[in-house]
Design goal:
Number of helices: 2
Oligomer: single chain
Keywords: 4Fe-4S, Electron transport, Iron, Iron-sulfur, Metal-binding, Repeat, Transport
Radius of gyration: 12 Å
Number of domains: 1
Largest sheet: 2 strands, antiparallel
Mean pLDDT: 96
Structural class: alpha+beta
Number of strands: 2
Protein name: YfhL family 4Fe-4S dicluster ferredoxin
Helix content: 10-25%
Strand content: 5-15%
Shape: globular
GO molecular function: 4 iron, 4 sulfur cluster binding; metal ion binding
Length: about 80
């Protein structure tokens, strides 16, 4: 699954620079994650970096974008050209 940022976000700015896919961006009110770019850091790291640095724990899995590990790896390959 892609990740999402909930309305508990405090706009602390720590998640956005940690995303290796540039999937996190400033939305109208809080940071948001582009599900087409989010691989949960599959291919880059063992765990999602945004979740690791978030001080308020507001980055859960997005139930509207269910993906397997294989699908996340395929997305990583498409986004980076690595594989």
């Amino acid at each position: 699954m892609a990740l999402m940022i909930t309305d508990e976000c405090i706009n602390c700015d720590v998640c956005e620079p940690e995303c290796p896919n540039n999937a996190i961006y400033q939305g109208d009110e809080i940071y948001e994650i582009d599900p087409n770019k989010c691989t949960e850091c599959v291919g880059h790291f063992d765990e999602p970096q945004c979740q690791q640095v978030c001080p308020v724990d507001c980055i859960p899995l997005d139930p509207d974008h269910a993906e397997t590990q294989e699908q996340l790896m395929d997305k990583f390959v498409k986004l980076t050209g690595k594989g």
